[in-house]
Amino acid sequence: PGEVIASTPPLSSIRGDIYDRNFRPLTSAYKTYAIYARPLEMEDPDSSAAILAEILGLEKSKLLPNLKSERGFIWVAQKIDHEKADAIKQRNMKGVYQVVETKRFYPNFKKAAHVVGFVENGQGLDGIEFQYNSILRGDEISSAELKTLNYAPETEFGGSSTHLVLNLDLMIQSKIERFLDKRMKITGASSGTIILMNANTGAVL
Question: d(Cα 127, Cα 119) in Å, to the nearest integer?
Fold first, then answer.
């Protein structure tokens, strides 16, 4: 996709986002919460089961046996919103804990998907998500990775996630993909490629 411009956001544990050249989001990260319990630490499993069931919309009769078990750890619920997580936290139940889970979302779905790539379990597995995985995660960055970036001299990398701004234009990309899809349907082709070039210089854009 060409030159990548990097800027450092406020300190955050959430993976950095990717934008097109006009700062349209190509990716987004959001938080959900997971609730777990350590039955051996619980003082009143019956009361805790009633509270958790009410807040989370679970059946107390199914939850209680797990909370009374001899197990060291059980998941109670995952992918819950902040409101429910906060309501549980305020009840301060001994042996009940919560963790933040970060989820990745692609607002443009398939548009530029081959460029952006995807993430699984916090690891970029294709496209920009893979190529700049260390930068997006806030890991230590190699000198080879730094050479591919355009960034301000005072920018500090490592220790926090970093947003990336590509020179890709999402609107142009969408028009190209629609044109290519239409031509493939007309010709019956199973695949196709479009190369965008500068008419004056012949340089590939």
Answer: 10
